[in-house]
Amino acid sequence: MVQVNKSIISYKTLVLVLLFLGMFTREASAQTEVEPWGNITGIRVQGQLFEFETSLRVAGKDWTKLHATAKEEQNPQYHREGKTQLVTTRIDSLYFNERVADGEAGSAIVAINFMPHADTTLTGVYFVVRIAKGDYTGASIKVNNDWVNLNALKATTGNEYLNGNTQAVEIKSLNRSLKLTLDEPTEVSLRADTGKLHKGDYLLYLPIAQGDIKNGQGIVKTYTLAVSGKIDNAPVTLKVNTQQNGRLFAGFGGNFRIQNPKNDPQVIDYSLNNLRVAWGRVEMPWRFWQPEKDSDPTENAKDNKLHPAVQKAMEMAQRLSKMNIPVILTAWSAPDWAIEGKPRFRHQSGEPWGNPLNYGNIDAAYKSIADYIVYLHDAYGVDVKLFSFNESDLGINIRQTGLQHADLIKGLGAYFVSRGLKTKLLLGDNSDATTYEFIYPAMADPAARQYIGAISFHSWRGWDTPILQKWAEAAKKMNLPLIVGEGSIDAAAWNYPAIFEEQTYALEEINLYTRLLAICQPLTILQWQLTADYSPLIGGGIFGNNAPLAPTQRFWNLKQLASTPEDVYAMPISNNGKYLSVAALGNNGKHTYVVHIVNNGATRQVTLSGLPQMVTKGVLYLTDKGHQMEKTPVAINNGIAKFKVEATSYVSLVVEK
């Protein structure tokens, strides 16, 4: 049974609530950060993010089988209407419509429309606010009229610190506060987070419904969240060490896998015409190159019988090659004869991803791949630098173990040599940074070393510094270039493409790239993709938007990164700014230097030292929600540059003698 019957309201009442939210946001000034699956991660005030995290949680009977909204856990839909962000999602048969409206003075109003599509018995459905313990050290919590020090609370056997019937909860520490106001008095509960990721944090449970829930029993709840506190706009000092050179950064690159023949060409044209693309990755449509084991794909190609997908992929490689862009060739899937079992193109719950190679036909597989590379050279003039199977650690769509990967490198690498090919193998090309152990067998095998041209991983998951350092260490140990084969932050974002237009996504993406430059020192970062898939452009029919083709903030971020001067090397840089990510690159022979800075906080002054005495001026490029690589001259005196970085911005100081 639903605990608070008053919360069951009519559709007409819901409409009035939502109209009120729309009216309220016209004069809004806060910036609420909402993930496309519905979790609010904080509210910005003057650019500074006051962090917390909300989620919708469903607790089974007696708190069994707890499910929560989270990245890649549901299939949400996301879009924006003015200053209101809307998310539609479901957990099993429980459907949610969530509207998050920016409010004034660091506040947001959340309206949740909950609609069960089946009778269900639960402990409850909750709007939950996670409060990081580190952000509220020594804080006190107020429920009703009583303030209690959080450190004095003791959790019960049910991990509950306290509960009470209230219409407002406030948590306050020395530098920040968070206040939640409910639409009516409700029994709330403060619990301990026992999960591995956020163990020790506080979880504030606000019930939406409890007990027996009936099919069609709609409920609407509204919450106001307000933050306040000290804005950190303290000056930051950076110091670059130009005497210590790391690995070469050849420049920004891109993936050019053709998946949308109608819309891909316009994005590819725009990208290649407006970006300096240093490396490119294209597909080998192996399934369509040689669908039958005993056929001769080269003769078929010579007879003008190339499959259209193969022809387009080869033409894409040729276009890059003519622009002197090195080409990586990657196979996502294989012909049926080259794999074991029925092809798996979509993952099914409880089943493994992809298919292993059929080692009974491995020699024929080696020949087929080499034939493709030879034909690509002979007919299209393309020299393939590196070859890989895409994300074979996971199985998209060819699956290998680490030992099988090492054996493939040795076997295919040796076969390439026997055919006179200079193409090397990519070590890894992993699905995520987290699966670094996949490359260890090949690293430990001296026979594989001669065939490896570079190490590669994809940046979808595993952004913690210790994990990223694993890849930097591997590249250093092998004395090989490191490539981020697919760069971006959310592999499921194609399901809710409106997120690509959000400042939140743009800032997080370029922040990751800046950290990758500093920690991993990659040869290149290959954007996924510079096509209509995950497009950095909007309009032109992409994602159903028929407005004229135009760049987004993401595109300008990528362009600014791609404008890094050629032939620069990673250089150490110190940074005392909590909210800044920085990376430095330079070439002492050319007296060329660039410092990339992402400011994830309020506007502040920066003092950069350590530049050579002979450089006297630079140019500061600014990209944020309202600026597109805006240029400002910067004077440099005695190796010191002083400049301002705007709130939530990406800036690059370029120094060239």
UniProtKB/TrEMBL annotation:
Keyword Metal-binding tagged: no
Domain of life from the UniProt record: Bacteria
Origin species: Mucilaginibacter gossypiicola
Signal peptide residue numbers: 1-30
Name by which UniProt lists this protein: O-Glycosyl hydrolase
Keyword Repeat: no
Keywords annotated in UniProt: Signal
